[in-house]
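So, who can interpret the following?
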Amino acid sequence: MGALNISGGNFQGGTGLIFGPFGFGVNQSGGNYMHTGGGTFNYGTGTVIFNGSTAMVDVNAAENFYNLSFQTNGGTLKTIASDDTLIANGDLSFQSGYLNGGTIDVKKNVSVFNTFSGGNTALNFSGATDQIFTNNGGITTSGTWTVNKPNSAPLAENSFAPSATTNLLISGNIGNVGNSTYVPLDIVSGNVLQTGNYNLALTSLSLASETSFVNEFAGTITLGGDVINDGLIRLNANGTGCQSDSILLRSSSAMQRNWSGSGIFQIVDADVREQTGTPIITVYNGTNSGNNGANWVFYSNCIAPAAASVTIGGRVLTDSGRGISNVRVVMTDFEGIMRVTQTNPFGYYRFNEVAVGQTVVITVNSKRFVFANPTQILNVSEGLSE
């Protein structure tokens, strides 16, 4: 059987495997999946395998499936119509061939086999529970990856532990510098956490408020474009404390990559080259490998906080000298650990029991106001009120 064209009635997906929809039968070599008119595809809990040779998937804007798998013969190309979205309510696997066009919205896990050759299809990660991305050596698609998880919640105060149901766990490389595959990563809601030593080639990286991007392992992040952070970026090679500089921040060329945003930057044990931007970004126990902007500050020591402690306090004011209430104030210490508070109705804030003998970064952020200098670097040696 060749193409599958649903124009009326119902097609039951069942619970097993459907080989196609470019035809039914393991040896089917071609045909399109067309569902732009009437009729219903009831996807059930089975797996639809897109195999065969070059073909088109064309649906009426969106089509629901359960598990999806792409396994084209001889490394051939499948194409999803440009304005269409395939919704995988289960798992998604890329096993062989290329995939171009459209978007796949996946609710559970994604795996890339070493025989998959990439393409430009976009991915949305929108599952209500943790999702795992695994790459076993293939090439990822280069369309925009959007993380937009419905159960997102901000990190708890003084904690890096993300909420239990808001995470995309990265267990493999994203993009490929060797063949110039770079992926735009847009974190709209939720947290992206690396689970091992992996390399990321990103066209761009953007984080919305109350999202996070965390790597506590090792690997290289190569940027083909800029970073916008209104959430939390935490890079701490090999976990807590100061160890070897095992996270590398690089540009895809000699051009500096611009970092901006009102979010929090916590960077420890990183080797940085060809990065610039507007916010002050402090790298603790890191390496300045050259061609970085003046906003990148490298703090060479990694000292244990002294036993003595002080109070750091301040006030956030308008240009006319009035205190601003409910401003989010974040203090980041030399290990990248943050403490969060808000200003009171008169604009005052305070952090108690801050260890002396270290450098901290104070950052303010408000949805109602834009601050000319939202970040300050303080050497803690006595009680401060800035």
